[in-house]
What does this fold into?
Amino acid sequence: MCELFCLSSRRPTRATFSLKRFAAHGAPDGRNVDGWGVAFHEGRDIRLYKEPEPAGDSPWVAFIEQRALATSLLISHIRRATCGANSHANTQPFARELGGRMHLFAHNGGFDAIAAKFAKSERHSAHRFHPVGETDSEMAFCLLLDRLASLWKGSTVPTLKARLAAVTEFAAEMRLLGIANFLYSDGEFIFGHGHRRTQADGIVAPPGLWFRHRHRGATASAPADSGVTIHDHHTDEAQEMALLASVPVTAGHWRPLAEGEIVVVAAGELVPS
It folds into this structure.
């Protein structure tokens, strides 16, 4: 199955070791060899790098690490193609504009009959968002954004409560169609939904997503097992970091999400909901 990874931090940081270790899941001799992508939020916009080729030996991954872009929010995805050709258009994360900002979506799993659901909903209302590729994941993202579009009309930013209600309803519908682990970001909040995945023993079962929170004190150095190299310009401030991943990618305590659980993350913290 595909692999998801997300980092949120209070202050800009560079994710190097975690990204490299995460990319190893897409090594040429492994199963996830059909593409990779990583998106860095920069205010209302994003930097998106992706290619329909193995991540494990990609010079672009090395380039990203060498440039060491600082960000407070990134989402990454390693693809194993199950729906749609091995192409750039079908490579995640997917990105769309809504409400004057870029939104991101990455999915692990598969949705049966989602094309019929998309066509049925189109008969009731014209879609603003349409897939560029052929994947069920991108179609699901378009359905989610159609659902959220009414919240982002005008100049008023929707409340977290309204956004979470829409994502929760969407997730419940997607679970009926198949395996629905996903990361969705609107540039302010990241919504992580855990469902099921194929475990090491070959059984499809929870957890489908794991969460880790890490605090670094103002004078503390990054622990050796963090898996995330922190390069701060100012060392006199504490740092908060939240990670979401299909499987733990660093040492330390990771909490498995319950089946159907949604967590909201912002600025390196778990947001009460």
Notes: The chain has one domain: 3-267. The chain has five helices and 15 strands. Residues 3-267 form a domain with the Glutamine Phosphoribosylpyrophosphate, subunit 1, domain 1 fold (CATH 3.60.20.10). The two ends are 29 Å apart (CA to CA).
